[in-house]
């Protein structure tokens, strides 16, 4: 994460705090992050030096027309400062700062297949046990290369129970002997 993206996110969080719209802006930032993750064309347009800043602004304001005024002003500011490529990182930084301010932990679980509701509940209980916090949400990422099992990340903690990791450990054990 770039320092510039974090600065923009902090400024947006502060402004939203003054207007008591932190929750609204949080929803906007989630929407922006998801939209940018799903649209390679939009990401390419934002980072393109060929497309004029005003055109980028018009596209962004149309795509995110239902957003709060603080979000629209943030977009205009990024355009004015020629920092539109940072929009995704600003949204991600805002989400992280907001969660931290709310005392919310995000458990990132990487699995080979989508989590079932039962398994998600077990993961949630394990994370609550590890962190001692009741404010925990689970974000599931699919990565078929781990073959099976899961990788759990909460803040700086990581627990790797993937089949690929176990196979690599076995391979190293046989290589050393």
From TrEMBL:
<protein>
    <recommendedName>
        <fullName>ATP synthase subunit delta</fullName>
    </recommendedName>
</protein>
<dbReference type="Pfam" id="PF00213">
    <property type="entry name" value="OSCP"/>
</dbReference>
<dbReference type="InterPro" id="IPR000711">
    <property type="entry name" value="ATPase_OSCP/dsu"/>
</dbReference>
<keyword id="KW-0406">Ion transport</keyword>
<comment type="function">
    <text>This protein is part of the stalk that links CF(0) to CF(1). It either transmits conformational changes from CF(0) to CF(1) or is implicated in proton conduction.</text>
</comment>
<keyword id="KW-0066">ATP synthesis</keyword>
<keyword id="KW-0375">Hydrogen ion transport</keyword>
<keyword id="KW-1003">Cell membrane</keyword>
<dbReference type="GO" id="GO:0005886">
    <property type="term" value="C:plasma membrane"/>
</dbReference>
<dbReference type="InterPro" id="IPR020781">
    <property type="entry name" value="ATPase_OSCP/d_CS"/>
</dbReference>
<dbReference type="GO" id="GO:0046933">
    <property type="term" value="F:proton-transporting ATP synthase activity, rotational mechanism"/>
</dbReference>
<dbReference type="InterPro" id="IPR026015">
    <property type="entry name" value="ATP_synth_OSCP/delta_N_sf"/>
</dbReference>
<keyword id="KW-0139">CF(1)</keyword>
<keyword id="KW-0813">Transport</keyword>
<dbReference type="GO" id="GO:0045259">
    <property type="term" value="C:proton-transporting ATP synthase complex"/>
</dbReference>
<comment type="function">
    <text>F(1)F(0) ATP synthase produces ATP from ADP in the presence of a proton or sodium gradient. F-type ATPases consist of two structural domains, F(1) containing the extramembraneous catalytic core and F(0) containing the membrane proton channel, linked together by a central stalk and a peripheral stalk. During catalysis, ATP synthesis in the catalytic domain of F(1) is coupled via a rotary mechanism of the central stalk subunits to proton translocation.</text>
</comment>
<keyword id="KW-0472">Membrane</keyword>
<comment type="similarity">
    <text>Belongs to the ATPase delta chain family.</text>
</comment>
């Amino acid at each position: 994460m770039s320092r510039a993206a974090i600065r923009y996110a902090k400024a947006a969080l502060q402004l939203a705090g003054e207007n008591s719209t932190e929750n609204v802006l949080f929803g906007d930032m989630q929407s922006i992050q998801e939209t940018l993750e799903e649209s390679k064309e939009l990401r390419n347009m934002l980072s393109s030096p060929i497309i004029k800043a005003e055109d980028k602004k018009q596209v962004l304001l149309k795509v995110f027309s239902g957003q709060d005024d603080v979000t629209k002003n943030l977009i205009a500011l990024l355009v004015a400062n020629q920092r539109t490529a940072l929009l995704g990182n600003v949204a991600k930084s805002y989400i992280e700062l907001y969660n931290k301010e709310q005392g919310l932990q995000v458990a990132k679980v990487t699995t080979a297949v989508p989590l079932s509701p039962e398994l998600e509940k077990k993961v949630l209980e394990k994370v609550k046990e590890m962190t001692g916090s009741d404010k925990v949400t689970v974000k599931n990422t699919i990565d078929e290369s781990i073959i099976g099992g899961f990788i759990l990340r909460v803040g700086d903690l990581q627990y790797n129970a993937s089949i690929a990791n176990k196979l690599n450990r076995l391979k190293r054990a046989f290589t050393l002997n």
